[in-house]
Design goal:
The protein is of the alpha/beta class. It has two domains: about 45 residues, no CATH class; about 200 residues, no CATH class. Strands 1-7-6-2-3 form a five-stranded parallel sheet. Strands 4-5 form a two-stranded antiparallel ribbon. Helix 10 links the parallel strand 6 and strand 7. Helix 5 packs across helix 8. Bound molecules: zinc ion (2 copies). One zinc ion binds next to helix 3.
Length: about 250
Amino acid sequence: MPHFAELMSNQFQPIVDLVFPRTCVQCQVKVNELANYQFLCPDCSKEIHFAHPPACTTCGYPYFGVLTGPRKCPHCAELEPVFDQGKTLFLAKGPGRTLLHELKYRKGLYILGDLSLMAQNQNHFIRYLKGARLVPVPLHKDKLRERGYNQSLYLAQTLAQIAPGASVLDCLIRTRFTCTQTRLDRKDRFQNMKNAFALAPRISLNPKQTYILIDDVFTTGSTLNACAEALSLAGVKHIKVATLGHG
Ligand SMILES: [Zn+2]
Ligand SMILES: [Zn+2]
């Protein structure tokens, strides 16, 4: 039985479209087979703000205009990153925000094909992931049971398929169930995440290898930093982060 997403991308597309008409996640208009993306109409896809370089080297937020001054942007000014570098694919606003929301809260795994295509078209992003071990940010097991899937693991798998030499290593576990971060200020978020992650049992890491933490969104960077800390404690020397959206 082919996966639904595979079915959607094969030569039966016109027939499938008749049975399951595809609509844009952002504006709900019908998307036909001539559009670049399966679930984003041409108009809305123009509204995706890709995070092209030059960008903040810590979180990937693009610098608009001439690059001068500090390498850290205001978003991560208070972060003391344990990782070396960060990149993001697009900004979490407009259709970008909708895609992230769909993936995380609405079982939107069907958009992984479109996300893969977006990443493939951003050479700097693919080059960044090349040859690395991609480590998804884990969910606590209670959260995993509630949601049914870890969107970061699916993202890591999607990216590993398109970045040459990259592979997934699902090697971290979430040891503490942290309360929701949305009402906490930046300082409290960092405190809240401290020691929330650990290396899974029976995993050995190669200090010479580059590990890239994968998450759906970069907000304050506190979750990614806590994961980076767990990798660093396990002896990893080259840690980077990559997120789908920033905002
Ligand atoms: Zn649309
Ligand atoms: Zn930044």
